[in-house]
Every structure is written in C-alpha cells, then in structure tokens.
Amino acid sequence: MKGYTSSALLLGPALLSQLALAQQAPSGVVHWGIQKRHAPNAPNRLLRRAGPTHQAILQNEQARGGYFATCAMGTPGQKVTLQLDTGSSDVWVPDSTASICNKGACDLGSFDPSKSETYTVVGQGEFDISYVDGSSSKGDYFTDVFNIGGTTVSNLTMGLGAQTDIAYGLVGIGYAINEAIVGNSHSLSSQYPNLPVAMVDDGLINTIAYSLWLNDLDAGEGSILFGGIDTKKYKGDLTRIRIYPSSNGYYFSFIVALTSLQAISPSGNDTLTSQEFPIPVVLDSGTTLSYLPQDIVDQIWQEVGAEYSDRLELAVIPCSKKSSNGYFSFGFAGPDGPRITVRMDELVLDLTSGDPPKYTSGPNKGQDVCEFGIQNSTSAPYLLGDTFLRSAYVVYDLVNNEIGLAETDFNSTESNIVAFASMSATIPSATQAPNQAAVTNRPVATMPSFAASSGFSDTGGSGNDGKDENASAGMPMKMRVIRAVATLHAGRAAAVRQGVRSVGLGACRAAVETPLKQAKELAASNMTPEAAAARMTPEEAKRLARVRNIGIAAHIDSGKTTVTERILFYTGRVKAIHEVRGRDGVGAKMDSMELERERGITIQSAATFADWKKKEKGVEETYHINLIDTPGHIDFTIEVERAMRVLDGAVMVLCAVSGVQSQTITVDRQMKRYNVPRISFVNKMDRMGANPWKAVEQINTKLKIPAAAIQVPIGSEKELEGVVDLIDMKCIRNDGQRGVNLKISKEIPPEIKELCEQKRQELIEKLADVDDEIAEMFLEEQTPTPEQIKAAIRRATIACKFTPVLMGSAIADKGVQPMLDAVCDYLPNPNDTDNTALDRSKGEQPVKLVPYNSLPFVGLAFKLEENPYGQLTYMRVYQGSLKKGAYLYNSRGNKKVRIPRIVRMHSNEMEDVNEIGAGEICAVFGVDCASGDTFTDGGLPYSLSSMYVPDAVMSLSIKPKRSSDADAFSKAMNRFMREDPTFRLHVDEESEETIISGMGELHLEIYVERLRREYKVECETGQPRVSYRETITQKAEFDYLLKRQSGGPGDYARVVGWIEPNPNGGEDNHFESRVVGGTIPDKYISACQKGFQEACIKGPLLGHKVIGSSMVITDGATHVTDSSDYAFNLAAQMAFGKAFTAAGGQVLEPLMKTTISAPAEFQGNILMLMNKRGTIVDTEVGADEFTMVADCSLNAMFGFSTHLRAATQGKGEFSMEFSHYAPAPPHLQKELVQKYQKELEAKRTK
C-alpha cells in the first residue's frame, strides 16, 4: 500500500516449489504462494477508506513493499498479481482500459472484462475507494471466476478500477466488516462475501481462517493456507491467543495484547517496560514498520543506538547494525504466552533503492544511514508490521477470534498440512495461552540498565552522543509522532450473514463480553469523559483553570478595539498604546489592515493572547487569555459568528451614552446561539451624557438577560475618577501614566455611599432570582459574604442566566484592570463549558469533549486567512494536544494532513510553538481545508457542528477593467470566498456576468477596494442587485397537458391540481400528491415534485427564488411509450408557471432593520430622509443625540451613506441587518417585471 519503485514480477524457483506444496494440500485447504515485492506506482498513504465504512489498513511512512500473490480471473483466466492485505476485505483489480494501464504502468496485470465469458456487473458505478493522499479507484462491482493455487472460486464479488491512479489491485482477507458495500447501503444484508467467506460458501475450506508465513526470509517468498496450517513450518509450540474487540464488542482488526519486551545481546539482557502495558497492537501484513508507545520506543532506540532525524522525520540507525548479534523478544498474552524473536537484520532497513545517505558528523560519521524498523506512536492501538511479522508464523482464526503464534522455522524442508475440522473448530495442533485474563495487570514502569546496549553496536557506543546535524538532528523529546490510526468501525456487526457465515461469525463470538478495565486500557480511544476527568492530573486541572478564551464584541464604535488595546498594554503584550484610526501614525495593534486604520472600523476579527497576573488570597496567579477582537459592523457579522462558535466567554462592550444598540442586539443573539457566557462592560463613561444605569436597564429589558452592576462610577463624564467595587465595597482608582497603577481604598466618597449600598442590594436581589444558594440566604435574611457573591456570580454567568456589569472608560485608561479581574473570576475555563461533537458512527449522537491532553485530538478550523507563507488556519483545540509535525484527519473526506507549523497569533504577528494543549486557540500552516472543518487524529468518527452563516442580501456585477488582470481577479475571488463564507460569487447564466454577493454595501465595497490594493486589480461594478423573492397569494387550479412529438419517442404528461400559499406558513415550499387510482404512477410523482422544486428556484416574474408556495397534484394521465420522468418533471414546471399569475404572483423585497444615530440637531433632516425610504419603528432621543430604528427597503438604501453624511455634516452613522421579506410596492413590482421581460427578450433576439 505504499509508494514503491517500479519493478517487474519475477517468478523464482521458490514459487515452483510452492506449486508442489499446493498439490500436497488436503481437502478443505487452499494453498496460495505469496511473494514479498515492491509494487509499481503505489500511493504513499492508503490509510483509510472514504465512505460509509473504514478500511483497517495501518500504514507506515516509508514505502517498502507488501505480500503479493498471483491469481487468474475470468473465463478464460487472466493472470493478475494482487497485493495481500490482512487489514481489509475487498478484492479489486485495475481495468485494462484504465488510463494508467494504457501508459504501461500496470506491470502486475489488469483485467479485461470483454475477454471473460463469465463477467457480470452487479453494481454499476458503485465501486469507489478513495485514500487520504488523493489516490482513488472507481468503477463497477462485478462477479466472476477467481482462481488461486489451482482452486476456483465460482462467483466472487470484486471491484473493477476503470478510473484509477493505482497501478495494481488488492485482495483483502481481513474481517468482512471492513469491506465496501455494493449498493452503497449501510445495512448488514448488503455486505457481500469476501474471499475467505466465498471459499467457505463454495465448500473449498471448512472455516474462515488461514495461516501466513515466509518460507525464506531473504527471498521474501512464502505461503498462505486458507483453512489450514503447516505444522512443519514453525518452531516450538503454536499458541492460541485472543483477538480483542473494539469498544463496542465488534471485531475489525487483529488486535492482540503485547505484554513484555526484552532486549538481548552478548553484553546482557534488559527488560523494557511501558506505562501502556498491556499494549494493544494490531498485526497487519499491509505495512512494513512497527509502531509502539513513546516510552518503550525511547528505550529500544537507546539500546540499539537509533536516533530520530528531524530532516527525514523518522528514526535512523547505522546500516552496519544490521549484522548485530542482538535481538528483541516479544511476549504476548501474559507471562505464559508465546514469545517471538526479532533479529536486527529484520529491523535495519534500507532508506533508498540507490546509494544510501551518510552520517556527516558525530560518532557515526561516514557510515551509511538506514531506517529503523520500530517507530514511535502516541495512542492505542499500536502496530506490529512486517518488521515483526516476517519472523512469526501466524494463524488468523476469524471465527473464534484467535491468533496462533509461533516462530517461523526458515530451515524447514518438510511439510505437514492439517485442515481445520469444521467451522467452529479451534486452530489445529495449537494450545491456548493460559491466564489470559491476567493481561490487564500493569507492571511497574522502570528504566532498564541498558546492559544489552553495547552488544547491539559494532562500535561499542550507543550512538546517542554528538548527533549528526544532517542525518539525525533532534533529540527524542523533539520527535515527530507518527500516529498509528485505530481502525474502529461505525458499528455494523460482522456477525449477521447468510447461511454458513451466520453460523461462523454470529453464533461463535457475537456475545463476547469485554471487561470494563480491559476496554479502557486496550482501547484508549473509547475513554469516556467521566474517566478522563477522573484521570486528569492536578497539574493539568490547574492549567485549564487558568485558561480563558474570550472575545470582545459590541455595536460599531462602542470602543471594542480601544478596550483590547488597553488589555494588551496592561498585560504587557504591547509596550505603548496606540489609538484607532491611526491618529498617531501607528494605529491600534488589532487593526492590522490598512483599510481598518483608515476607516477606524474593524473589518476582520483578530486574535491575540496575553497573560494577566491576578492576586488571589495573597498569591499571584497567572491567567492565560486567548482574545479575539471582533468587528461591530453588521456587514462583517460572520467574523463575530465564527468567533462566538469557538469561544468560552465574551466581554460585551456597551456605550455609556447609547446603551443597547442595534448591533448589540445582534451580538446578544449570536452569544445565545452558541451559549456563550458574557460579562458586560459599559465603556465611554467619560463622555457627556454617560448613563450606565440606562445601559443596565436595557440589558434587562431589551436583551432579556438578568443583569446588575457590580461597580458604581466615582464621578461622571470628565470628572470620572474610578469605580467602587460593590462586592468588596472598596474604591478602585487608576493612577500613574496611562493608569497602570491601581489605588485601592475602603473609603467610599460620602456622596455615592448610599447609592453604592442601594446598588449592592439590587445585585443581591438579582442574584437571588438566578441562584438557589443566594435565594435561600435572601429568604432567611442573611447577608452573603463577598466570596459567596462572587461564587454565585460565576455560577450564574457560566449558566448564561446572568451578566455582571462593569464600568469604565478605555480611552481614559480607567476601569480596564478590574474588568480583566472579572474575566478571570466570572468567565468559564475550557473545562467549565459543555463542548460536544457528533459521533457519526452512532447516528450523530452528541458526545462530550473533554479538554484533556491525553485524549485523542479533536479540533475545529474556524477561520482561514491567506498569508505570504500560505493558508493560515485558525483552530480551536477542544480535546487532546496538537504537536508540530503531527498528522491529523479532516473528518470531511477523511483526508490526512501533516501540521508542519503551529503559531500563536498576535494580531498580524506570529509566534511559533511546538505544541498546543487542549482548550487553546492557535493557527496552523499547510492545511488545505474549509472554514468549519473538523480535525481528529484519525481514531474518532467525530465531527463538530459548524457555525451559522446568514444569507447574502446584496449583489453586484463585477469585472476587471483589464483582461490581463483575469488571473489575479480569479485568485482574489477564490481567496475571499475561502476566507469569508458570507461572500459569494456566481456567474449569471443568462447575462454571463460575474456576480458577487454579500451582507451589505460596505461589505462589497471593502472587497472591491481590497482587490485594488492587494491585487492591483481595477474593477468595474454594476448596479447593485437586490435578492428579491417571489410568492403567491391565492389558490389557482391547473390542468396542464404536455404533448409533443420529435420523430422518435415523444413527451407526454398531464398533471391536474392547484397551487396555493403554503398552509403551514413560513418560507418553505410544500409539495403533496393526492392522486388516487394510479392515474399517475408513483415513479412519476417524484418527478413532479422535482419539477416543482426546480420551478421554485427561478420564479416566473423576476427569475428569483419562489418561497411560501404549495403544489397539490390530484390527477393526471400517462402514455404507454411517451411518458417519462423528464416529461412529468417538465409538465410540473410548466403548470406552475402557467398558474403563477392566476395565483396572485407577487414580488417580495428584503426589508432591512436600519438603525441611525446622529446628534439631536439633525433629527429633522434624518426624518425627511427616512420618510422616503421606509417605515419608522422607534425613536429614542437622548441628551445630545438620538437614535432612530426603521424598516427600509434595501433597494432604497443604495447610496444612503452619502445622503446621511450630507444631512448630518458627516456626524451620523447607520447600520443595517436583514429583517424580513415584504411585498414590493405595485409600481416597483411592475417596473421590475418589465425590466426582466426586456432582458429575456434581448437574449432571445441575440
């Protein structure tokens, strides 16, 4: 399954001897000669099948070779050599017409179905296997004769790779549950008999079992015996050990318990230990290297003098060690189980087929570099590949779920083949390993004395000193971990089969019970959240308790970026404060885009991190804060949306003058959508007209979340001095340059003391409404202590039942440090929130994720950015840890990706890190994915719900002014769409114009400006296009007959019924059939439904979507030869179009909730502007400014920003968000329909 060099198949004398062996095979046994070969044009990593089932092949990183066997397929037989794989269950072969075979790459043979008399297609176009490296094979499933070792399987189901980039086929002989499905069904009945099962069905063998061994270690030739064993091919006793099931009790791969490992050499013996003992290992002939836990691999490497090479990304060893007299002894299934000896010539492997690289420095300088056959992995189950299996005689019993193990006798020239007696018979001549129940006992992990080390080395040294910079730079602690992926299936039982198979797999082991302790230790990926929490170390719990993932969100111009700038300054992340709009020529740190600094608004969310030192009980504790500053303008709401999706808490900033504004309500809605707890910070307390109590009241009334102030301002407007902490009843004043020092005193100014006592009582009363503990104390007239109040605020805040309100002025450097303390005190850490994934193997059942580093990795890519170094992917780590160089799997398509670089973001600056723990936020390079993709380490079938993406509300036609800019234009559009899910692009089929769509005028204007600045592409934009909708207002009947003849078979369909507004209300379209008597067959009813759905995509009036309509079919007629799905589909479309006008077809236009704020002196001017554009909903007049809310037609709002600036001398601002669709005025509808008809007529006359 690896990327091998091309090589022709040579049949040596050993294969001729195997033919003689085949002739000796008794009844009930089928012999097949195999050869260890290099395969041509093999893909690099065939790790996991895409589709409804998982393929259980675990592959190493270096291309070495596999077991290959020659068969004959079809009648007459066509000779094909296939790779043998014990980890999968399909048989497939390249089609001789495949392009890769036409290029001469199919050296091992291909299949020509036209030359076989017995070829039958059973699944046309249904064979489809994809692998994570992008290689794939597609085509048909077929049945045909399959001949191996002179024995014929009469009717084997196989795949035919007509479209393949893999030049050789595969024969899987593992558990049948690992096969693909004919018919693409998940049902058990759709599984087809794989090769061993088909041989049982044909009476060729007695059971689903086989033995596998190499005859000659150097030549790499061997045998597989289906249904039997050869007692002369192994040394000592053949011992039966159990195969362990997955966590759900099903068997997918050959997992056994490795319970001991010894290093033995002339200089001494060492017993190697691991905290993972007993180690669950998969025996798999489909891979070369072996993968074991990190701790025991460190010991093995030190014994033999291997070392990890960062450049080669694997463990290397001098090639001279191949002749070492040392060896390793692997023990299985407890102290009395079988032991297998693996010598160094099996573990020292050539790196290349040409001249090997050489060590350029260190004690091994000048020696050839080889690859070491045992590599490191991070989690169970681990893997024993060919570096181990070549030394073992292995019997696979898939009925009793047992493995037979013994050392291969390579000197044997005799043969004694014994068949399995029956389906339920155990392995012949084998004894069962005793006391296997004791394998769960863990030995004490100790470091060996390495007495055997010198005996492994010809040079007498371990090779671990003076590392070579080119061949092996990097100590073991810096190793890149290669994950041996667990092959746990979605949960289909292998037991249910027809006939003999039902007896074999179902009756024997369907009810196997796995002790809970074994399941936890041998299947790490099955660790429950409860078990993870119980095993969490105090250090890990403390780390998580000090992590905060927060966002800063608010209405536009409420001071979010200014607040963030102070947070960075007070935490020491920046050395100087710079203001928004770049008034000092620098600009705020988080506004890194030139457009942001020019316009004074945040366009893209920006991430950073900081450490805040907070005193708790006299001890200084450091909190790690990951912070995202979000935009406030509604046009960039997706930036807030995806930030809220991954954050644990938020700071909602409000203006002390304006209070709750329109975008504050939108942000509140987003926080509630993702259950994000928040604290509220009333900013701009130094402004004239500041009224924090108005903001607190509006949080309670408009946002409908209980809120109470936990501070009272000292002074107001320009006289603002600081705040009074109502919990501890102390004054906090900022002092020194930029307010870096805090002056804390117990003396509350007398003029506000009564107010403070009143507000403290209001706080306790509000907490009593949302917290049971405070409620009991309140009813008993007890006064809670400050600690009890803080605990209640934290509980209620994390439960999203309450928001504490703090006060200050970021621009005046007041109140920010207490707000940071509140972030630490009241917002949750990653372990306080319930983050869930969907388990695809259990019907997307929710599964809790635990932010524990030792668990399998789960993360979400929530934002993409193009960077000079490539695509930058922002990722939230929900579970497990992420290490540089690790491999992850994208759950969408199961694609494997390597993480070459991990960074922490500080606005547009990056800080490289080697590892990120659970609960953190980071960014990675080199990952090709989409926003919202889930990543795992490959062992969990999990996916995370993505974020909500609102529909676009405005469109523009756009094209580059110069044709030479087409490539840059296309590149920019692709980038913008990847980065921003609300930015869409399509080409209008009729006008052939490129149309961009977005959230508003400013949104599209920014992208057009970025095209000019970042890509030097000048563009022409057309008239903004509004996303209208169409609907009907009344019932209209139809009786439509489609009848046309065109020389051959014609089209005939008659449909009768009516259309009407959807009786269920809403914007959904509804289809219903009330046909009786079979006048329209059921197969044509679905065609009518599709026709109705297609008609609703492009309405008759304007070509926009139709919403809120219903079609009911009551009668119709068909023709014997001329009726078809196409005819009824078309008839339904035509009937809908004809009846649309009679049903009161109507154009709906989007109405936008528009909020305008301006100084009170301009109220009259704005009223005049809005009277022409929409309906005024609400007006709020303050001390020096007023706010107006209106529902306005989007069509009337184009260019409004220019009119507003003119009417308010540039002092007014407005925001829009989509509200709902409403009927367009009759004159506008008539105008739009006429324009659309003219456009259609112009196209027809072209």
UniProtKB/TrEMBL annotation:
Originating species: Neurospora intermedia
Chief site of localization: mitochondrion
UniProt keyword terms in alphabetical order: Aspartyl protease, Coiled coil, Elongation factor, GTP-binding, Hydrolase, Mitochondrion, Nucleotide-binding, Protease, Protein biosynthesis, Signal
Classification via SMART domains: EFG_C, EFG_IV
Family of the protein in this entry: Belongs to the GTP-binding elongation factor family. EF-G/EF-2 subfamily.
Name of protein: Elongation factor G, mitochondrial
UniProt feature coiled coil, ranges: 753-780
Ranges where the Peptidase A1 domain occurs: 67-406
PROSITE patterns named in the record: ASP_PROTEASE (PS00141), G_TR_1 (PS00301), G_TR_2 (PS51722), PEPTIDASE_A1 (PS51767)
Pathway noted in the entry: Protein biosynthesis; polypeptide chain elongation
Function text: Catalyzes the GTP-dependent ribosomal translocation step during translation elongation. During this step, the ribosome changes from the pre-translocational (PRE) to the post-translocational (POST) state as the newly formed A-site-bound peptidyl-tRNA and P-site-bound deacylated tRNA move to the P and E sites, respectively. Catalyzes the coordinated movement of the two tRNA molecules, the mRNA and conformational changes in the ribosome.
Residue intervals of the Tr-type G domain: 545-831
SUPFAM superfamilies: Acid proteases, EF-G C-terminal domain-like, P-loop containing nucleoside triphosphate hydrolases, Ribosomal protein S5 domain 2-like, Translation proteins
Gene that encodes it: MEF1
Residue sites binding GTP per the record: 554-561, 629-633, 683-686
